[in-house]
Amino acid sequence: MNEPSKTSHRDWVVPDDIFENLVFNYTRDITHQAREGRFDPIVGREKEIQDIILILLQRGRKNVAVLGSAGVGKTAIFVKLAQVINEGKVPEYLKNARVIELEMSSLAAGTLSRSEFEGRLLPIIKGAAERNATKELPPIIFAIDEMHTIMRSSDASSASGVADILKPYLTAGDLHVLGATTKDEFRDFVAKDPALDRRFQKIHLEQPSSAESLKILHGIRPFYEKHFDITVSDECLEKIVEWTTKFMPRRTHPDKDIITLDVSCARQILFVGKGTALDLNYIRETIAVEIGLIAAAID
């Protein structure tokens, strides 16, 4: 949960207390969570973050659609941006900006009608838009995962049609939206609405190479070693990337590498215990179970 906090002492159409309570109850303040250390550092993607910042600084089309296959780290971009903001490594305009994820399931939970759902969503959008419009406060950036579900043509019962609510504020230039979805889903849903499509600049998130994936594993290794109280050798990380590349070609880096590391470490403490070194055989077993082979075949 987010901690409610006052945004300013100005008189707003959506007052501070109402706005912050709605944000607290129905969204996820990623910058606040990142400040509290809720996330591991996101390794890599510096070029993509730079491109996102460039778009957010613009006067006109300052909304971003991050497009990529499942597992390449689209939603990790939300966290990475929040971490960069918290580190102060952004231009003055984005200093202390808030990255707030609109969680449609939370907004819809317990509602009995569409009007009740919109009664929660609209004040959040209006509140952010009026605060952004003054440029007196750090900007509020809305993050929307699976952004194609906000289209009226989508089958998502709660989020369907949210795009129509956002559109006037996007047209006025009072919102920053950072959305994420696959290329196919963007084409099939969002791009079919030209008015909305042209409000977003696209950033294509490609699958990282094996070398980049290995760099990511090196970056997160200390956090897994601390959590599981085991040690993980360079060889283990290298074998994870090598074997997932070879035996799990339909899955994407870095998702398959991180999952394999996590499950392998869990196997290590389940069968051997803490204070030990990760055994390659548990990596073999993890991959074997995933793809339906015997562990001896993984090499």
Describe the structure.
The chain is of the alpha/beta class. It folds into two domains: 16-204, 3-Layer(aba) Sandwich (Rossmann fold); 210-297, Helicase, Ruva Protein, domain 3 (Orthogonal Bundle). It is 51% helix and 10% strand. The protein contains 13 helices and six strands. A six-stranded mixed β-sheet has the order 1-3-4-5-2-6, with helices on both faces. α7 links the parallel β4 (140-145) and β5. It is elongated. The mean pLDDT is 91.
Question: Which keywords apply here?
Answer:
299 residues, alpha/beta, Rossmann fold, Helicase, Ruva Protein, domain 3, 2 domains, 6-stranded mixed β-sheet, 13 helices, 51% helix, 10% strand, elongated
Summarize it.
This protein is 51% helix and 10% strand. It is of the alpha/beta class.
- Computed over alpha carbons, the radius of gyration is 21 Å
CATH topology of the largest domain: Rossmann fold
**Structural class per helix/strand content?**
alpha/beta
Dominant shape: elongated
- Order of helices and strands, N to C? HEHHEHEHHEHEHHEHHHH
Order of strands, main sheet, comes to 1-3-4-5-2-6
The number of helical elements comes to: 13
CATH architecture of the largest domain: 3-Layer(aba) Sandwich
Overall CATH class of the largest domain = Alpha Beta
Query: What share of the residues lie within helices?
Result: 40-55%
Average pLDDT, rounded to a whole number, is 91
Strand content: 5-15%
CATH superfamily of the largest domain: P-loop containing nucleotide triphosphate hydrolases
Beta strand count: 6
Low-confidence stretches: none
Main sheet, how many strands, which sense, barrel? 6 strands, mixed
The first-to-last residue Cα distance is 44 Å
- The overall number of domains is 2
